[in-house]
UniProtKB/TrEMBL annotation:
Organism: Micromonospora sicca
Transmembrane spans: 243-260, 299-321
InterPro entries the UniProt entry points to: NAD(P)-bd_dom_sf, RCK_C, RCK_C_sf, RCK_N, Trk_Ktr_HKT_K-transport
Residue stretches making up the RCK C-terminal domain: 476-559
Domain RCK N-terminal: 337-458
The entry's keywords: Membrane, Transmembrane, Transmembrane helix
Region of interest called Disordered, as start-end residue ranges on this chain: 555-576
Protein name: NAD-binding protein
Compositionally biased residues, Pro residues: 558-576
Highest taxon in the source lineage: Bacteria
Stored Pfam families: TrkA_C, TrkA_N
Biological classification of the source: Bacteria, Bacillati, Actinomycetota, Actinomycetes, Micromonosporales
Length: 576
Protein backbone atom coordinates (compact mmCIF):
# COMPACT_ATOMS: atom_id res chain seq x y z
CA UNK A 1 0.00 0.00 0.00
CA UNK A 2 1.47 3.32 -1.12
CA UNK A 3 4.80 1.69 -1.93
CA UNK A 4 5.12 0.16 1.55
CA UNK A 5 6.69 -3.27 1.04
CA UNK A 6 6.61 -4.24 4.72
CA UNK A 7 4.66 -7.42 5.58
CA UNK A 8 1.03 -6.50 6.30
CA UNK A 9 -1.04 -8.31 8.95
CA UNK A 10 -4.72 -7.81 9.73
CA UNK A 11 -5.97 -8.50 13.28
CA UNK A 12 -9.69 -8.72 14.12
CA UNK A 13 -10.55 -8.54 17.80
CA UNK A 14 -11.76 -6.26 20.57
CA UNK A 15 -10.34 -7.59 23.82
CA UNK A 16 -6.97 -7.73 25.63
CA UNK A 17 -5.84 -10.68 23.47
CA UNK A 18 -6.04 -8.50 20.36
CA UNK A 19 -4.16 -5.76 22.21
CA UNK A 20 -1.27 -8.02 23.18
CA UNK A 21 -1.12 -9.71 19.75
CA UNK A 22 -0.79 -6.31 18.09
CA UNK A 23 1.91 -5.34 20.56
CA UNK A 24 3.79 -8.58 19.81
CA UNK A 25 3.52 -8.04 16.05
CA UNK A 26 4.80 -4.48 16.26
CA UNK A 27 7.87 -5.73 18.11
CA UNK A 28 8.67 -8.12 15.23
CA UNK A 29 11.40 -7.24 12.76
CA UNK A 30 11.35 -8.25 9.10
CA UNK A 31 13.88 -7.74 6.29
CA UNK A 32 11.95 -4.61 5.34
CA UNK A 33 11.73 -3.33 8.92
CA UNK A 34 8.85 -3.60 11.34
CA UNK A 35 5.63 -5.17 10.12
CA UNK A 36 2.52 -3.17 9.29
CA UNK A 37 -0.62 -3.95 11.30
CA UNK A 38 -4.27 -3.13 10.62
CA UNK A 39 -6.73 -3.69 13.48
CA UNK A 40 -10.43 -4.26 12.80
CA UNK A 41 -12.61 -3.43 15.83
CA UNK A 42 -16.34 -2.82 16.40
CA UNK A 43 -17.71 0.71 16.25
CA UNK A 44 -18.11 0.85 20.03
CA UNK A 45 -15.90 -0.53 22.76
CA UNK A 46 -17.32 -3.68 24.31
CA UNK A 47 -15.33 -3.54 27.53
CA UNK A 48 -13.26 -1.16 29.61
CA UNK A 49 -10.08 -3.12 29.01
CA UNK A 50 -7.56 -2.37 26.26
CA UNK A 51 -8.37 -3.65 22.78
CA UNK A 52 -5.52 -2.19 20.71
CA UNK A 53 -7.31 0.69 18.99
CA UNK A 54 -5.24 3.25 20.91
CA UNK A 55 -1.82 1.78 20.07
CA UNK A 56 0.32 4.21 18.13
CA UNK A 57 1.32 3.16 14.62
CA UNK A 58 -1.67 0.87 14.01
CA UNK A 59 -4.27 1.50 11.32
CA UNK A 60 -7.72 1.02 12.87
CA UNK A 61 -10.78 0.01 10.83
CA UNK A 62 -14.16 0.13 12.60
CA UNK A 63 -16.68 -2.47 11.45
CA UNK A 64 -19.39 -4.30 13.37
CA UNK A 65 -19.54 -7.10 10.78
CA UNK A 66 -16.56 -9.02 9.40
CA UNK A 67 -17.48 -9.42 5.73
CA UNK A 68 -15.84 -8.86 2.36
CA UNK A 69 -16.44 -5.10 2.55
CA UNK A 70 -14.72 -4.78 5.92
CA UNK A 71 -11.77 -6.88 4.78
CA UNK A 72 -11.30 -4.85 1.60
CA UNK A 73 -11.32 -1.64 3.67
CA UNK A 74 -8.63 -3.20 5.86
CA UNK A 75 -6.46 -3.94 2.81
CA UNK A 76 -6.60 -7.71 3.23
CA UNK A 77 -5.81 -8.31 -0.45
CA UNK A 78 -2.10 -9.03 -0.59
CA UNK A 79 -1.74 -9.21 3.21
CA UNK A 80 0.66 -11.72 4.74
CA UNK A 81 -1.76 -12.96 7.39
CA UNK A 82 -5.10 -12.55 9.14
CA UNK A 83 -5.86 -13.19 12.84
CA UNK A 84 -9.51 -13.74 13.89
CA UNK A 85 -9.57 -13.34 17.66
CA UNK A 86 -13.23 -12.90 18.61
CA UNK A 87 -14.70 -15.23 21.26
CA UNK A 88 -17.20 -16.65 18.81
CA UNK A 89 -16.22 -19.91 17.12
CA UNK A 90 -18.97 -19.82 14.50
CA UNK A 91 -18.47 -16.11 13.86
CA UNK A 92 -14.75 -16.61 13.34
CA UNK A 93 -15.39 -19.45 10.91
CA UNK A 94 -17.82 -17.29 8.91
CA UNK A 95 -15.27 -14.46 8.85
CA UNK A 96 -12.62 -16.87 7.57
CA UNK A 97 -14.84 -17.87 4.66
CA UNK A 98 -15.45 -14.21 3.82
CA UNK A 99 -11.72 -13.48 4.01
CA UNK A 100 -11.02 -16.29 1.54
CA UNK A 101 -13.15 -14.49 -1.03
CA UNK A 102 -10.93 -11.41 -0.72
CA UNK A 103 -7.54 -13.15 -0.49
CA UNK A 104 -7.48 -16.90 -1.32
CA UNK A 105 -3.80 -17.33 -0.48
CA UNK A 106 -3.68 -16.13 3.08
CA UNK A 107 -2.00 -17.19 6.31
CA UNK A 108 -4.94 -17.56 8.70
CA UNK A 109 -4.85 -17.74 12.52
CA UNK A 110 -8.19 -18.42 14.21
CA UNK A 111 -9.08 -18.39 17.89
CA UNK A 112 -11.35 -21.35 18.70
CA UNK A 113 -12.39 -23.51 21.63
CA UNK A 114 -14.52 -26.16 19.92
CA UNK A 115 -12.18 -28.87 18.60
CA UNK A 116 -14.69 -30.12 16.00
CA UNK A 117 -14.92 -26.71 14.37
CA UNK A 118 -11.15 -26.37 14.64
CA UNK A 119 -10.63 -29.54 12.60
CA UNK A 120 -13.11 -28.22 10.01
CA UNK A 121 -11.18 -24.98 9.67
CA UNK A 122 -7.91 -26.86 9.15
CA UNK A 123 -9.46 -28.90 6.35
CA UNK A 124 -10.95 -25.87 4.58
CA UNK A 125 -7.90 -23.63 5.01
CA UNK A 126 -4.68 -25.62 4.56
CA UNK A 127 -2.45 -22.68 5.52
CA UNK A 128 -4.11 -21.99 8.87
CA UNK A 129 -3.45 -22.27 12.58
CA UNK A 130 -6.36 -22.83 14.95
CA UNK A 131 -5.36 -21.90 18.48
CA UNK A 132 -7.05 -21.69 21.85
CA UNK A 133 -5.85 -19.11 24.35
CA UNK A 134 -7.31 -21.35 27.04
CA UNK A 135 -5.05 -24.25 26.01
CA UNK A 136 -1.99 -22.01 25.95
CA UNK A 137 -2.59 -20.28 29.27
CA UNK A 138 -3.82 -23.32 31.23
CA UNK A 139 -0.33 -24.83 31.77
CA UNK A 140 0.82 -21.61 33.44
CA UNK A 141 -2.11 -21.77 35.90
CA UNK A 142 -1.51 -25.48 36.57
CA UNK A 143 2.21 -24.91 37.12
CA UNK A 144 1.46 -22.07 39.54
CA UNK A 145 -1.08 -24.21 41.42
CA UNK A 146 1.49 -26.99 41.83
CA UNK A 147 4.18 -24.56 42.97
CA UNK A 148 6.34 -24.76 39.85
CA UNK A 149 8.39 -21.83 38.61
CA UNK A 150 7.51 -22.35 34.94
CA UNK A 151 4.99 -24.39 32.96
CA UNK A 152 7.00 -27.40 31.86
CA UNK A 153 3.99 -29.29 30.53
CA UNK A 154 1.59 -28.86 27.63
CA UNK A 155 -1.34 -30.60 25.99
CA UNK A 156 -1.24 -31.83 22.40
CA UNK A 157 -3.42 -34.27 20.44
CA UNK A 158 -5.35 -35.32 23.54
CA UNK A 159 -2.30 -35.96 25.73
CA UNK A 160 -0.79 -33.96 28.58
CA UNK A 161 3.00 -34.09 28.35
CA UNK A 162 5.47 -32.79 30.91
CA UNK A 163 9.18 -32.61 31.58
CA UNK A 164 10.55 -34.65 34.49
CA UNK A 165 13.49 -36.63 35.75
CA UNK A 166 13.48 -40.19 34.47
CA UNK A 167 13.67 -41.48 38.04
CA UNK A 168 10.41 -39.72 38.94
CA UNK A 169 8.17 -41.33 36.31
CA UNK A 170 7.17 -44.82 35.28
CA UNK A 171 9.01 -46.33 32.34
CA UNK A 172 5.81 -46.83 30.32
CA UNK A 173 4.95 -43.11 30.63
CA UNK A 174 8.20 -41.90 29.00
CA UNK A 175 7.63 -40.45 25.51
CA UNK A 176 11.24 -39.61 24.66
CA UNK A 177 14.56 -38.59 26.18
CA UNK A 178 15.39 -34.89 26.12
CA UNK A 179 18.79 -34.31 27.69
CA UNK A 180 21.70 -35.69 29.66
CA UNK A 181 22.36 -33.36 32.58
CA UNK A 182 24.58 -35.52 34.79
CA UNK A 183 27.46 -33.14 34.01
CA UNK A 184 26.20 -29.56 34.61
CA UNK A 185 29.08 -28.16 32.55
CA UNK A 186 28.25 -30.32 29.53
CA UNK A 187 24.51 -30.67 28.99
CA UNK A 188 23.71 -32.77 25.92
CA UNK A 189 20.23 -32.31 24.43
CA UNK A 190 18.43 -34.87 22.26
CA UNK A 191 21.21 -37.49 22.56
CA UNK A 192 21.41 -40.33 20.09
CA UNK A 193 21.08 -42.82 22.95
CA UNK A 194 17.70 -41.95 24.46
CA UNK A 195 18.21 -44.37 27.34
CA UNK A 196 21.09 -42.17 28.56
CA UNK A 197 18.84 -39.11 28.96
CA UNK A 198 17.99 -38.38 32.59
CA UNK A 199 15.55 -35.58 31.63
CA UNK A 200 12.59 -36.96 29.69
CA UNK A 201 9.29 -35.97 28.19
CA UNK A 202 6.54 -38.07 29.76
CA UNK A 203 2.78 -38.43 29.55
CA UNK A 204 0.60 -37.55 32.56
CA UNK A 205 -2.06 -40.20 32.98
CA UNK A 206 -3.12 -39.76 36.61
CA UNK A 207 -3.13 -43.56 37.03
CA UNK A 208 -2.50 -45.61 39.01
CA UNK A 209 -3.01 -43.83 42.34
CA UNK A 210 0.14 -43.18 44.28
CA UNK A 211 2.39 -42.34 41.31
CA UNK A 212 2.54 -38.57 41.87
CA UNK A 213 5.89 -37.07 40.96
CA UNK A 214 8.28 -36.49 43.83
CA UNK A 215 9.85 -33.65 41.86
CA UNK A 216 6.57 -31.77 41.84
CA UNK A 217 6.00 -32.31 45.55
CA UNK A 218 2.31 -32.86 45.08
CA UNK A 219 0.37 -33.00 48.32
CA UNK A 220 -1.83 -36.07 48.39
CA UNK A 221 -5.44 -35.01 48.69
CA UNK A 222 -7.46 -36.87 51.26
CA UNK A 223 -11.03 -36.76 52.42
CA UNK A 224 -11.47 -36.29 56.11
CA UNK A 225 -14.44 -38.38 57.07
CA UNK A 226 -16.14 -36.45 59.86
CA UNK A 227 -19.75 -37.66 60.04
CA UNK A 228 -20.72 -35.09 62.68
CA UNK A 229 -19.48 -32.16 60.61
CA UNK A 230 -21.18 -33.45 57.47
CA UNK A 231 -24.41 -33.99 59.46
CA UNK A 232 -24.33 -30.47 60.89
CA UNK A 233 -23.72 -29.05 57.42
CA UNK A 234 -26.67 -31.03 56.10
CA UNK A 235 -28.89 -29.83 58.97
CA UNK A 236 -27.92 -26.21 58.28
CA UNK A 237 -29.04 -26.62 54.67
CA UNK A 238 -32.18 -28.58 55.59
CA UNK A 239 -34.58 -25.65 56.08
CA UNK A 240 -34.69 -21.94 55.41
CA UNK A 241 -33.72 -19.59 58.23
CA UNK A 242 -37.18 -18.00 58.59
CA UNK A 243 -38.94 -21.34 59.06
CA UNK A 244 -36.27 -22.47 61.50
CA UNK A 245 -36.63 -19.32 63.62
CA UNK A 246 -40.44 -19.66 63.66
CA UNK A 247 -40.24 -23.29 64.81
CA UNK A 248 -37.71 -22.45 67.54
CA UNK A 249 -39.83 -19.59 68.90
CA UNK A 250 -42.97 -21.70 68.91
CA UNK A 251 -41.21 -24.56 70.69
CA UNK A 252 -39.91 -22.10 73.30
CA UNK A 253 -43.45 -20.83 73.95
CA UNK A 254 -44.76 -24.40 74.26
CA UNK A 255 -41.95 -25.34 76.66
CA UNK A 256 -42.66 -22.31 78.85
CA UNK A 257 -46.39 -22.98 78.98
CA UNK A 258 -45.75 -26.67 79.67
CA UNK A 259 -43.56 -25.74 82.61
CA UNK A 260 -46.23 -23.39 83.97
CA UNK A 261 -48.91 -26.06 83.42
CA UNK A 262 -46.85 -28.58 85.35
CA UNK A 263 -46.46 -26.12 88.23
CA UNK A 264 -50.21 -25.42 88.28
CA UNK A 265 -51.33 -29.06 88.51
CA UNK A 266 -48.37 -30.04 90.71
CA UNK A 267 -46.99 -33.03 88.70
CA UNK A 268 -43.48 -34.30 87.92
CA UNK A 269 -41.50 -33.01 84.90
CA UNK A 270 -42.11 -36.24 82.97
CA UNK A 271 -45.86 -36.02 83.52
CA UNK A 272 -45.78 -32.31 82.66
CA UNK A 273 -43.98 -33.14 79.37
CA UNK A 274 -46.58 -35.80 78.57
CA UNK A 275 -49.52 -33.48 79.30
CA UNK A 276 -47.96 -30.66 77.29
CA UNK A 277 -47.32 -32.81 74.20
CA UNK A 278 -50.78 -34.39 74.31
CA UNK A 279 -52.47 -31.05 74.79
CA UNK A 280 -50.44 -29.36 72.03
CA UNK A 281 -50.63 -32.03 69.36
CA UNK A 282 -54.06 -33.58 69.92
CA UNK A 283 -55.95 -31.37 72.34
CA UNK A 284 -57.41 -32.44 75.70
CA UNK A 285 -60.92 -32.96 76.93
CA UNK A 286 -62.26 -29.76 78.46
CA UNK A 287 -62.54 -29.69 82.27
CA UNK A 288 -64.50 -26.79 83.71
CA UNK A 289 -63.41 -27.82 87.17
CA UNK A 290 -59.82 -26.77 86.52
CA UNK A 291 -58.50 -23.52 87.87
CA UNK A 292 -58.83 -20.54 85.53
CA UNK A 293 -55.04 -20.34 84.98
CA UNK A 294 -54.90 -23.99 83.91
CA UNK A 295 -57.81 -23.51 81.50
CA UNK A 296 -56.13 -20.48 79.93
CA UNK A 297 -52.83 -22.36 79.46
CA UNK A 298 -54.72 -25.30 77.96
CA UNK A 299 -56.38 -23.05 75.37
CA UNK A 300 -53.06 -21.38 74.50
CA UNK A 301 -51.36 -24.76 74.13
CA UNK A 302 -54.12 -25.93 71.79
CA UNK A 303 -53.67 -22.81 69.67
CA UNK A 304 -49.91 -23.36 69.63
CA UNK A 305 -50.54 -26.91 68.47
CA UNK A 306 -52.62 -25.61 65.57
CA UNK A 307 -49.62 -23.49 64.51
CA UNK A 308 -46.99 -26.17 65.18
CA UNK A 309 -48.43 -28.88 62.90
CA UNK A 310 -48.37 -26.70 59.70
CA UNK A 311 -44.86 -25.55 60.63
CA UNK A 312 -43.67 -29.14 60.99
CA UNK A 313 -45.16 -29.92 57.57
CA UNK A 314 -43.45 -26.86 56.08
CA UNK A 315 -40.11 -27.87 57.60
CA UNK A 316 -40.33 -31.38 56.18
CA UNK A 317 -41.31 -30.20 52.67
CA UNK A 318 -38.82 -27.34 52.65
CA UNK A 319 -36.11 -29.57 54.04
CA UNK A 320 -36.57 -32.22 51.37
CA UNK A 321 -36.43 -29.60 48.61
CA UNK A 322 -33.40 -27.81 50.10
CA UNK A 323 -31.56 -31.05 50.76
CA UNK A 324 -31.98 -32.14 47.16
CA UNK A 325 -30.88 -28.71 45.92
CA UNK A 326 -27.87 -28.76 48.27
CA UNK A 327 -26.83 -32.20 47.07
CA UNK A 328 -27.27 -31.14 43.44
CA UNK A 329 -25.28 -27.94 44.03
CA UNK A 330 -22.52 -29.82 45.85
CA UNK A 331 -22.86 -27.79 49.05
CA UNK A 332 -22.89 -30.99 51.15
CA UNK A 333 -19.38 -32.36 50.66
CA UNK A 334 -17.01 -34.26 52.93
CA UNK A 335 -14.14 -32.14 54.22
CA UNK A 336 -10.96 -32.52 52.15
CA UNK A 337 -7.36 -31.47 52.42
CA UNK A 338 -4.51 -31.24 49.94
CA UNK A 339 -6.78 -30.77 46.91
CA UNK A 340 -6.96 -27.90 44.41
CA UNK A 341 -10.07 -25.73 44.10
CA UNK A 342 -10.80 -24.33 40.62
CA UNK A 343 -13.26 -21.42 40.44
CA UNK A 344 -14.97 -20.97 37.08
CA UNK A 345 -15.50 -23.76 34.56
CA UNK A 346 -15.24 -21.67 31.42
CA UNK A 347 -12.61 -22.16 28.73
CA UNK A 348 -9.64 -21.72 31.07
CA UNK A 349 -11.10 -23.44 34.14
CA UNK A 350 -12.11 -26.51 32.14
CA UNK A 351 -8.58 -26.92 30.77
CA UNK A 352 -6.99 -26.38 34.19
CA UNK A 353 -9.34 -28.91 35.80
CA UNK A 354 -8.61 -31.53 33.13
CA UNK A 355 -4.83 -31.11 33.33
CA UNK A 356 -4.80 -31.24 37.14
CA UNK A 357 -6.87 -34.42 36.94
CA UNK A 358 -4.35 -35.85 34.47
CA UNK A 359 -1.61 -35.25 37.04
CA UNK A 360 -3.55 -37.23 39.66
CA UNK A 361 -4.45 -34.16 41.75
CA UNK A 362 -7.89 -34.18 43.37
CA UNK A 363 -9.93 -31.19 42.19
CA UNK A 364 -13.07 -29.49 43.50
CA UNK A 365 -14.74 -27.08 41.07
CA UNK A 366 -16.91 -24.03 41.81
CA UNK A 367 -19.19 -22.30 39.33
CA UNK A 368 -22.20 -20.06 39.72
CA UNK A 369 -24.33 -22.13 37.31
CA UNK A 370 -24.80 -25.92 37.27
CA UNK A 371 -24.67 -26.13 33.45
CA UNK A 372 -21.29 -24.41 33.03
CA UNK A 373 -19.20 -25.18 29.95
CA UNK A 374 -17.05 -27.64 31.87
CA UNK A 375 -19.84 -29.09 34.02
CA UNK A 376 -20.30 -32.18 31.84
CA UNK A 377 -16.56 -32.87 31.85
CA UNK A 378 -16.43 -32.45 35.63
CA UNK A 379 -19.20 -35.02 35.99
CA UNK A 380 -17.42 -37.41 33.61
CA UNK A 381 -14.13 -37.08 35.51
CA UNK A 382 -15.82 -37.42 38.89
CA UNK A 383 -14.86 -33.90 39.98
CA UNK A 384 -17.25 -32.48 42.62
CA UNK A 385 -18.95 -29.27 41.45
CA UNK A 386 -20.11 -26.73 44.03
CA UNK A 387 -22.71 -24.39 42.56
CA UNK A 388 -22.68 -20.90 44.07
CA UNK A 389 -21.03 -17.50 44.20
CA UNK A 390 -17.31 -18.07 44.72
CA UNK A 391 -17.03 -14.62 46.27
CA UNK A 392 -19.01 -15.82 49.32
CA UNK A 393 -17.25 -17.46 52.25
CA UNK A 394 -20.02 -20.09 52.52
CA UNK A 395 -19.32 -21.36 49.01
CA UNK A 396 -15.57 -21.50 49.61
CA UNK A 397 -16.07 -23.42 52.85
CA UNK A 398 -18.26 -25.96 51.04
CA UNK A 399 -15.24 -26.68 48.81
CA UNK A 400 -12.90 -26.94 51.86
CA UNK A 401 -10.77 -24.02 50.66
CA UNK A 402 -9.32 -23.63 54.16
CA UNK A 403 -7.50 -26.99 53.81
CA UNK A 404 -6.70 -27.09 50.07
CA UNK A 405 -3.17 -26.73 48.66
CA UNK A 406 -4.13 -24.11 46.06
CA UNK A 407 -7.05 -21.95 44.95
CA UNK A 408 -7.16 -21.28 41.19
CA UNK A 409 -9.61 -18.46 40.40
CA UNK A 410 -10.23 -18.24 36.65
CA UNK A 411 -13.82 -17.08 36.12
CA UNK A 412 -14.60 -14.34 33.58
CA UNK A 413 -15.64 -11.81 36.25
CA UNK A 414 -12.70 -9.85 37.68
CA UNK A 415 -14.78 -8.69 40.67
CA UNK A 416 -15.78 -12.24 41.62
CA UNK A 417 -12.22 -13.43 41.09
CA UNK A 418 -10.80 -10.80 43.40
CA UNK A 419 -13.41 -11.40 46.14
CA UNK A 420 -12.85 -15.15 45.96
CA UNK A 421 -9.09 -14.70 46.23
CA UNK A 422 -9.31 -12.36 49.22
CA UNK A 423 -11.90 -14.48 51.04
CA UNK A 424 -9.86 -17.61 50.37
CA UNK A 425 -6.76 -15.95 51.82
CA UNK A 426 -8.86 -14.91 54.84
CA UNK A 427 -9.79 -18.57 55.44
CA UNK A 428 -6.16 -19.66 55.21
CA UNK A 429 -3.29 -17.19 55.44
CA UNK A 430 -0.86 -19.69 53.85
CA UNK A 431 -3.14 -20.52 50.92
CA UNK A 432 -1.50 -20.46 47.47
CA UNK A 433 -3.80 -18.32 45.30
CA UNK A 434 -3.58 -18.26 41.51
CA UNK A 435 -5.70 -15.39 40.24
CA UNK A 436 -6.85 -14.66 36.72
CA UNK A 437 -7.29 -11.03 35.75
CA UNK A 438 -7.87 -9.79 32.21
CA UNK A 439 -5.64 -6.72 32.51
CA UNK A 440 -1.97 -7.65 32.92
CA UNK A 441 -1.07 -4.33 34.57
CA UNK A 442 -3.99 -4.67 37.00
CA UNK A 443 -2.88 -8.23 37.79
CA UNK A 444 0.60 -7.05 38.77
CA UNK A 445 -0.81 -4.26 40.96
CA UNK A 446 -3.20 -6.65 42.73
CA UNK A 447 -0.34 -9.05 43.38
CA UNK A 448 1.70 -6.30 45.02
CA UNK A 449 -1.14 -4.60 46.90
CA UNK A 450 -2.86 -7.64 48.43
CA UNK A 451 0.05 -10.03 48.68
CA UNK A 452 -1.67 -12.61 46.49
CA UNK A 453 0.94 -15.09 45.40
CA UNK A 454 0.38 -15.30 41.67
CA UNK A 455 -1.82 -13.32 39.32
CA UNK A 456 -2.09 -14.12 35.62
CA UNK A 457 -3.48 -12.49 32.53
CA UNK A 458 -4.63 -15.10 30.02
CA UNK A 459 -4.31 -12.67 27.13
CA UNK A 460 -0.75 -11.77 28.05
CA UNK A 461 0.23 -15.44 28.32
CA UNK A 462 -1.36 -16.49 25.02
CA UNK A 463 -0.56 -13.51 22.79
CA UNK A 464 3.03 -14.52 21.86
CA UNK A 465 1.85 -17.87 20.50
CA UNK A 466 -0.87 -16.21 18.37
CA UNK A 467 1.66 -13.73 17.00
CA UNK A 468 4.14 -16.53 16.26
CA UNK A 469 1.45 -18.51 14.43
CA UNK A 470 0.54 -15.46 12.38
CA UNK A 471 4.18 -15.14 11.39
CA UNK A 472 4.13 -18.86 10.46
CA UNK A 473 6.31 -19.74 13.41
CA UNK A 474 3.86 -21.91 15.32
CA UNK A 475 5.37 -23.34 18.50
CA UNK A 476 3.42 -25.68 20.79
CA UNK A 477 5.77 -25.35 23.77
CA UNK A 478 9.24 -24.18 24.72
CA UNK A 479 11.25 -26.42 27.05
CA UNK A 480 14.25 -24.84 28.79
CA UNK A 481 17.07 -27.28 29.55
CA UNK A 482 20.02 -25.49 31.08
CA UNK A 483 21.12 -22.85 28.59
CA UNK A 484 19.36 -24.65 25.74
CA UNK A 485 15.81 -24.12 24.53
CA UNK A 486 13.95 -27.00 22.90
CA UNK A 487 10.93 -26.17 20.75
CA UNK A 488 7.94 -28.48 20.40
CA UNK A 489 6.15 -27.80 17.13
CA UNK A 490 4.01 -29.43 14.46
CA UNK A 491 5.40 -29.17 10.94
CA UNK A 492 3.28 -29.86 7.81
CA UNK A 493 4.86 -31.67 4.87
CA UNK A 494 4.33 -29.98 1.51
CA UNK A 495 4.08 -31.90 -1.76
CA UNK A 496 7.39 -32.04 -3.58
CA UNK A 497 9.43 -31.22 -0.48
CA UNK A 498 12.64 -33.05 0.38
CA UNK A 499 10.86 -35.24 2.99
CA UNK A 500 7.89 -36.10 0.78
CA UNK A 501 8.20 -39.82 0.06
CA UNK A 502 10.98 -40.51 2.56
CA UNK A 503 10.64 -42.70 5.71
CA UNK A 504 9.92 -41.21 9.14
CA UNK A 505 13.40 -42.24 10.25
CA UNK A 506 14.79 -39.44 8.06
CA UNK A 507 13.23 -36.80 10.35
CA UNK A 508 15.36 -37.51 13.44
CA UNK A 509 18.78 -35.92 13.81
CA UNK A 510 20.69 -36.62 17.02
CA UNK A 511 21.33 -33.42 18.91
CA UNK A 512 19.01 -31.44 16.64
CA UNK A 513 15.56 -32.98 15.98
CA UNK A 514 13.53 -35.80 17.49
CA UNK A 515 10.18 -37.04 16.15
CA UNK A 516 7.38 -37.28 18.75
CA UNK A 517 4.29 -38.11 16.69
CA UNK A 518 3.05 -38.47 13.13
CA UNK A 519 -0.39 -37.42 11.89
CA UNK A 520 -1.63 -38.70 8.58
CA UNK A 521 -3.93 -36.25 6.79
CA UNK A 522 -7.46 -36.71 8.16
CA UNK A 523 -6.43 -39.37 10.71
CA UNK A 524 -5.63 -39.44 14.42
CA UNK A 525 -2.17 -38.67 15.72
CA UNK A 526 0.09 -41.73 15.99
CA UNK A 527 2.54 -41.52 18.89
CA UNK A 528 4.20 -44.88 18.11
CA UNK A 529 4.58 -44.68 14.34
CA UNK A 530 6.88 -47.14 12.57
CA UNK A 531 10.11 -45.34 11.51
CA UNK A 532 9.86 -47.16 8.16
CA UNK A 533 6.51 -45.52 7.33
CA UNK A 534 6.71 -43.32 4.25
CA UNK A 535 5.90 -39.63 4.64
CA UNK A 536 3.18 -38.25 2.34
CA UNK A 537 2.25 -34.71 1.41
CA UNK A 538 -0.23 -33.28 3.90
CA UNK A 539 1.18 -35.23 6.85
CA UNK A 540 2.05 -33.36 10.04
CA UNK A 541 5.17 -34.11 12.07
CA UNK A 542 5.24 -33.28 15.78
CA UNK A 543 8.88 -32.80 16.75
CA UNK A 544 11.04 -31.48 19.57
CA UNK A 545 14.06 -29.65 18.21
CA UNK A 546 16.67 -27.02 18.74
CA UNK A 547 16.24 -23.82 16.80
CA UNK A 548 18.87 -24.71 14.19
CA UNK A 549 17.41 -28.19 13.76
CA UNK A 550 13.90 -26.80 13.37
CA UNK A 551 15.07 -24.35 10.70
CA UNK A 552 16.63 -27.20 8.76
CA UNK A 553 13.47 -29.30 9.10
CA UNK A 554 11.31 -26.42 7.85
CA UNK A 555 13.48 -26.21 4.74
CA UNK A 556 13.07 -29.96 4.13
CA UNK A 557 9.27 -29.78 4.44
CA UNK A 558 8.87 -26.62 2.34
CA UNK A 559 7.98 -26.71 -1.37
CA UNK A 560 10.90 -26.86 -3.79
CA UNK A 561 12.13 -23.54 -5.19
CA UNK A 562 10.57 -22.46 -8.44
CA UNK A 563 12.89 -22.89 -11.44
CA UNK A 564 14.43 -19.73 -12.78
CA UNK A 565 12.89 -18.46 -16.03
CA UNK A 566 14.76 -19.24 -19.25
CA UNK A 567 17.50 -16.76 -19.98
CA UNK A 568 17.73 -15.53 -16.43
CA UNK A 569 21.29 -15.03 -15.18
CA UNK A 570 22.57 -17.72 -12.85
CA UNK A 571 23.56 -16.26 -9.48
CA UNK A 572 27.29 -16.42 -8.90
CA UNK A 573 28.34 -18.71 -6.07
CA UNK A 574 30.76 -17.29 -3.51
CA UNK A 575 34.29 -18.63 -3.54
CA UNK A 576 34.91 -21.57 -1.21
Amino acid sequence: MNGDDRPHYVVCGSDPLAYWVVRSLLATESPAGRVRVTLVVPERRRSDGPDGRDIEGVQVIRADRLDETAFRRAGLAGAAGLALLHQDDVGNMHAALCAQEVEPRLRLVVRMFNTSLANGVRQIFPDSAVLSDASMAAPAFVAAALGELAPTHFRHAGRTLYVARRADVRTEDVVCGLAVTTDPDLVRVLPADEAAADVVLAEATGQPPGTELAARRLVRARRRRQPVAVLLRAVRSFATRKIGVAVMLLLAVIALLGWLNGRAVDVSWTEALYLTLVTTLSGQDPDVGKPAAAQIMQVVLNLAGLALIPLITAVVVDGIVNARLALHAGRIQPDRSGHVVVVGLGNIGTRVMAQLHDFGVEVVAIDKVPDARGGALAHRLGVPLVVGDAGLEETLRAASVDTCQALVVVSTDDGTNLRAALNGRALSAELRVVLRLFDGDFAERIQRAFGIGISRSVSYLAAPSFAAALLDRAVIATIPVGRHALLVTEVPVVAGSALDGRPLAAVARPGEVRLLAHTRNGQKTDWTADPRMVISAGDRLTVVARRAGLSALLRETAPPPEPAPAGAPVPRQPDE
